[in-house]
Design a protein that fits this description.
Blueprint lengths: L2 H8 L1 H18 L24 H11 L22 H13 L11 H15 L7 E5 L2 H20 L3 H4 L9 E3 L4 H9 L7 E3 L12 H9 L6 E6 L11 H6 L6 E6 L24 E5 L11 E5 L2 H8 L28 H35 L4 E3 L7 E6 L5 H14 L5 E5 L2 E7 L7 H16 L5
Parallel strand pairs: 2-3, 2-4, 4-5, 5-6
Antiparallel strand pairs: 1-7, 6-7, 8-9, 9-11, 10-11
Helix pairs in contact: 2-3, 4-12, 5-12, 6-8, 6-11, 12-14, 13-14
The protein binds pyridoxal-5'-phosphate.
């Protein structure tokens, strides 16, 4: 055995203790580290010929790289939709690596059964019926891709062609309709050979909404002359967290032939609170559902879940045939259901967090985040020089400069906010107007954090030239 490797094996407890110490320091200090690192990263160094051992590697890492890591897992990082990692999920994630199970199949390990238990818990959490099967994937982009791959296979079934065998060309042009689709839908359509250009935007409701106009969707479907299509409904848009009326969209299937995929990446978590569950009423009428877990469940990257009620079609798409695998019988192994073959046991961090905090603990995170988003909305409405772009519907605050929100001034404002180090937001364009979004989905964020963010925004807006 290599000398450095043998040394690490001999000193494993000390090594893991050192790593633990760094992790404790970093996690405990997360609230106070700058939320984003804006300086240039070090230039790439040479590949080590002789290794230094893990303790020395840890020292090099903490000296050279960790100072530039962001505080994105902390309470005032409000960019994109960014979750942190609950203590239990970190514990589960560590053990995922320690056990290093391959979740691809049930052969010789209970790991896949644990994933099944976790998927079952999540199905219940989001109010989906037993007819939904699911699997862990890396993120909502991949969850959307899997859902749309199953949709593609369904189109084949409707048109009497076998897409998995004959390829997507056998389908001819496909229509994909959506009101305010996330950018990853176009990416998924590109990956699947359906084509980004086949995504048609259906008008949204008037009065500052991002939810699809169901009458307009009805009309667009009528225009397809009976050709089966895919509808992507959105349960939580990224700018204003608006929700399509899922029940009304699903009801259109009485008159039109379409696959209903729901992108509920973070909006699905509305189901956890009786106060907001009505927003996702009808989710269980979907044919496939995407929910991200590294956002509002607050498990480490990378984790999401995909659900569908057509396991058979999913199997047709992803089935892997190899001599050593044997024919899929009974409950199909996960490698026959997802793009990956070998797979990390991504379910374990989620299993830990759900076991540790239960439905009640995760509901509390959701409700607190929504209350804090509303509080920031109120604060922003009271800051001279800022105005809200949309009502705070759930956990995102979308706002801009009160005067001349052009690209130059909004960018200057964004830079001033980021340079302050207190918070990090992401720019957007809402209804043609440039602005910023503050998205709340971290388990630790408190009222005090919101006051700090509001203070940082007030001082940054004062620094924007030409107001
Ligand atoms: C974040 C998000 C995605 C993409 O998720 P990743 O985890 O980044 O792959 C898709 N849809 C919606 C609505 C999202 O918020």
């Amino acid at each position: 055995m290599d000398r450095a490797l043998a040394g690490d094996l001999a000193r494993l407890p000390e090594l893991l203790q050192s790593v633990r110490d760094v992790a404790v320091r970093e996690v405990n200090g997360m609230s106070e580290r700058p939320v984003a690192s804006l300086g240039p990263a070090p230039a790439p160094g040479p590949l080590p010929g002789e290794g230094v051992g893990a303790e020395a590697a840890l020292a090099r890492f903490t000296e050279r790289w960790s100072p530039g890591f962001s505080g994105s897992a902390g309470p005032r990082y409000l960019g994109f939709v960014t979750g942190g990692a609950t203590p239990a999920s970190v514990a589960g994630d560590w053990l995922t690596s320690a056990y290093d199970q391959n979740g691809c199949a049930a052969v010789g390990s209970w790991a896949a059964a644990l994933e099944r238990e976790t998927v079952g818990w999540l199905r219940e959490l989001f109010g989906l019926g037993e007819e939904f099967g699911g699997a862990f994937v890396t993120g909502a982009a991949m969850s959307n891709t899997v859902g749309l791959a199953v949709a593609r296979e369904w189109l084949g079934e409707r048109l009497g062609v076998d897409v998995a065998r004959d390829g997507v060309a056998a389908l001819g042009p496909v229509d994909v309709l959506s009101g305010s689709p996330h950018s990853t839908i176009g990416k998924a359509l590109s990956v699947l050979g359906l084509g980004r250009g086949r995504l048609r935007r259906v008008p949204v409701l008037p009065d500052n909404r991002e939810a699809v106009d169901v009458a307009a969707l009805d009309a667009a479907l009528t225009g397809l002359d009976g050709r089966p299509a895919i509808v992507v409904a959105n349960a939580g848009t990224v700018n204003s967290v608006d929700f399509d009326d899922l029940r009304a969209v699903a009801a259109l299937r009485e008159r039109h032939d379409f696959w209903l995929h729901v992108d509920a990446a973070f909006g699905g978590f509305a189901a956890l609170s009786p106060a907001y569950a009505h927003l996702v009423a009808g989710l269980d009428a979907a044919d496939s559902v995407c929910v991200d877990l590294h956002k509002w469940l607050n498990v480490p990257y990378d984790a999401a879940v995909q659900f569908t009620r057509r396991r058979d079609l999913q199997l047709a798409v992803f089935r892997n045939a190899a001599a050593y695998l044997g024919p899929p019988a009974g409950e199909p192994d996960f490698l026959h259901l997802t793009p990956e073959n070998s797979r990390r046991l991504r379910a374990l961090p989620a299993w830990f967090s759900l076991m540790a905090y239960g439905r009640a603990g995760h509901r509390e995170i959701v409700e607190r985040n929504v209350a804090l988003a509303r509080l920031l909305g109120e604060r922003i409405a009271g800051i001279p020089g800022l105005r809200l772009l949309a009502p705070v519907r759930l956990n995102v605050v979308c706002f801009t400069l009160a005067d001349r929100p052009d690209e130059e001034r909004v960018t200057a404002f964004d830079r001033a906010v980021a340079a302050g180090g207190e918070t990090f937001l992401t720019p957007t364009v809402y209804d043609g107007v440039r602005g910023l979004r503050a998205a709340f989905s971290n388990w630790r964020t408190s009222e005090e954090d919101v006051e700090r963010v509001a203070g940082a925004l007030a001082s940054a807006v004062a620094d924007v030239p030409g107001g």
